[in-house]
TrEMBL record:
The lineage of its organism: Bacteria, Pseudomonadati, Bacteroidota, Sphingobacteriia, Sphingobacteriales. It comes from the Bacteria. This is Lipoprotein.
Length: 146
């Protein structure tokens, strides 16, 4: 019985990881580079172009252990934290030469907001901020969606 429960939990977790969690996403960014290459590039840009998350918000920038999420703090108005994450799992990441990054949500001081909580104009503003202030500074470029 214990093995069956473990298998069910594993299947559910894999489903969450490959679907970018149950929170949905605002936009996917597709790269012709491995997750590890894109992640290294992304972390370098975040480190050199953003401020550290302030202590008052640190506890809100904690993801789920089984999802590979990153948090990007923007001090300039509007002050906010963007939540992004790579889709897939470690098996896919090791075997694929492409990757997909998702913009998942935003925190503005009192709660996390996700796709269902935002207007189309707010989603567009967040996408533009991520693209302009972070993704455009990376060595790897994402594919434009048509």
């Amino acid at each position: 019985m214990k093995k069956i429960k473990l298998k069910i939990v594993f299947i559910l977790l894999v489903g969450l990881v490959t679907s970018c969690g149950t929170l949905g996403h605002l936009k996917f960014y597709h790269y012709d580079a491995s997750k590890y290459e894109v992640e290294k590039d992304l972390l370098e840009v975040i480190k050199s172009h953003t401020d550290a998350i302030p202590l008052k918000w640190k506890k809100n920038a904690v993801g789920m252990d089984f999802l590979d999420e990153k948090f990007i703090y923007f001090k300039n108005a509007p002050e906010e934290i963007l939540r992004i994450g790579f889709t897939g799992d470690s098996i896919q990441w090791k075997s694929h030469t492409s990757s997909k990054l998702a913009l998942v949500g935003v925190f503005r001081g009192n709660e996390w907001l996700f796709e269902k909580d935002m207007s189309a104009s707010e989603k567009e503003r967040l996408q533009k901020r991520l693209e302009t202030e972070i993704l455009s500074k990376m060595r790897h470029s994402y594919k434009k969606e048509e």
